[in-house]
Amino acid sequence: MPQIRLEGSPALLDALDLQPLIAEIHDRIVTIAKAQLIDCKTLVMDARAERIGDGSLAMLHAEIRLLPGRDLATKQALGAAVTEVMEKAVLPHKNGLSLHVTAEIIEFPKETYSKRVIPA
After folding, report:
1. How many other C-beta atoms lie within 10 A of the C-beta of residue 37?
2. DSSP E strands, 25-120
């Protein structure tokens, strides 16, 4: 576990070099939340369309789902660190837009999580 979803404005996602961004997010999760790198799984969710506010805004959001066990300070530090990583990645691609960069750390019950690893 963790499972990470990145979603954002299509033009912004197209402009980003996503693999280094994902690697940095994984690094923060390993360092701060003490997760194993092998367990970090990220999907980038492409939006077919979006409109934020009056159209002069773009957004990038990370949803990080973790199993329980981290205290509030750890989750807050992880959210802040991931937001900072994303902010640095998007700044060169503002193209005159205001940007909203957000991260959400979500715990879900281990009792309802099921996983199977299917070897190669």
Report:
1. 10
2. 41-45, 57-66, 98-107
Q: Which amino acid is at 23?
A: A
- CATH architecture of the domain with residue range 3-112: 2-Layer Sandwich (3.30)
80: amino acid identity, one letter: A
Q: Rg of the Cα trace of the chain?
A: 15
**What pLDDT, in 10s, does the model give residues 36-74?**
999 999 999 987 777 888 878 889 999 999 999 999 999
Residue with tokens 């807050």: 76
Read off the pTM: 0.91
Name which of 8-12, 48-52, 111-115 the model is least confident about.
48-52
Q: 62, 86 in Cβ contact below 8 A? A: yes
Can you tell me the distance from the alpha carbon of 42 to that of 31, in angstroms, rounded to the nearest whole number? 17
Strand partners, 66: 107
Cα–Cα distance measured from residue 35 to residue 29, given in angstroms and rounded to the nearest whole number: 6
Distance from C-alpha of 14 to C-alpha of 25, rounded to nearest angstrom:
18
